[in-house]
Design a protein that fits this description.
The complex is a heterodimer of chains A (118) and B (193). Chain A is an all-alpha fold and 118 residues long. Chain A has 7 helices and no strands. The chains are: A mainly alpha (118), B mainly alpha (193).
Chain lengths: 118, 193
């Protein structure tokens, strides 16, 4: 290789040191943060349902409806069931006893009973 | 802050952590992209894509390599994909499927180093052009190893981690890259001076 060629080759290879020095870009991070803003403003949503590609609002709406139905059915079934140990049951038993006593009393004082007892 | 804390912060969409990662790696990512695409503005655009990719795939970071290696790998992949697209565009424009002087073509770079006139290759701009064309002709692995070493000043160990190869492979790749580069430049200047 002649001297001139050698010089040129070295000149090009030495240029790498200069080539790697890039000018600072003061707006790089500003541009990037503007582009990625939506990642942070909806961070929770992204991290939750959106992670699976599902929109949060319809899922929540369905969940509220299902929960409402469940509470409604549960309450209704609970109200319609007579708990033998509850206060309502006690009152029912008491009324039944009073009704029986009254019935027996009524029977005892009925005209038929009075006729038979003679 | 450790790598794990950085990644955890990014997964949690912590803006401050992301800003810190950008601040730490901005120059490295831009320089890595530039060393492979050889265009300042394209390198900056690609670097933006790299950071967006970091946001999107932070959860896939397994932690078996350093965060910097993972970021370098994303930057390299993005840049190489871009170069591939550019080559396809240049090919299409050469065979007439695209207009030759479209906005997406970059300057007046000749497609091959041999198309350059040595007399023109005197100024700094032209030296840069010769360098970039010669680098672009290196096999991909040699190009990555060489640019990581010369542009990023990474150690052989760090390059091995980024490229997922052994240190001895990196040594060999860099040695071959230097030899290839020198040979190409010698042939070019011998024929054109």
């Amino acid at each position: 290789m002649n001297k001139e060629t050698q010089e040129k080759v070295n000149q090009v290879l030495d240029y790498i040191e200069k080539d790697r020095l890039l000018a600072e870009d003061p707006f790089f991070s500003t541009r990037l943060l503007a582009r990625t803003e939506h990642y942070f403003t909806s961070g929770q949503q992204q991290h939750g349902f959106a992670r699976f590609g599902i929109n949060k609002q319809p899922v929540l709406a369905i969940a509220v409806v299902v929960l409402g139905l469940f509470i409604g059915i549960f309450s209704a079934s609970r109200l319609s069931t007579v708990n033998p140990a509850g206060p309502v049951a006690e009152r029912t038993v008491r009324l039944e006893q009073l009704a029986n006593e009254s019935f027996i009393t009524e029977i005892n004082h009925s005209p038929e009973e009075q006729f038979l007892s003679k | 802050m450790t790598d794990r804390e950085f990644i955890h912060g990014i997964i949690q969409r912590d803006n401050e952590v992301f800003k810190e990662v950008v601040c730490l790696y901005e120059n490295n990512v831009i320089r890595t992209c530039y060393s492979l695409v050889h265009d300042d503005q394209d390198a900056r655009d690609l670097a933006q894509e790299v950071f967006i990719e970091i946001l999107n795939s932070a959860e896939s970071f397994r932690g078996d390599a350093k965060l910097s290696s993972w970021i370098y790998r994303i930057a390299i992949n993005k840049s190489l994909n871009y170069v591939k697209q550019q080559k396809r565009r240049q090919f299409l424009s050469r065979i007439g499927l695209r207009s030759a002087g479209s906005d997406e073509d970059h300057g007046n770079l000749p497609a091959d180093i041999n198309q350059l006139n040595a007399e023109e290759a005197m100024t700094e701009k032209e030296i840069r052009m010769v360098l970039h064309l010669a680098l672009g002709k290196l096999p991909v692995n040699q190009r990555i190893a060489f640019t990581m070493c010369k542009y990023e000043k990474l150690s052989y160990q760090e390059i091995a981690e980024v490229m997922n190869v052994s240190v001895s492979s990196v040594e060999s790749l860099i040695h071959r890259a230097k030899t290839n580069l020198r040979n190409r430049l010698e042939i070019f200047y011998r024929e054109n001076l």
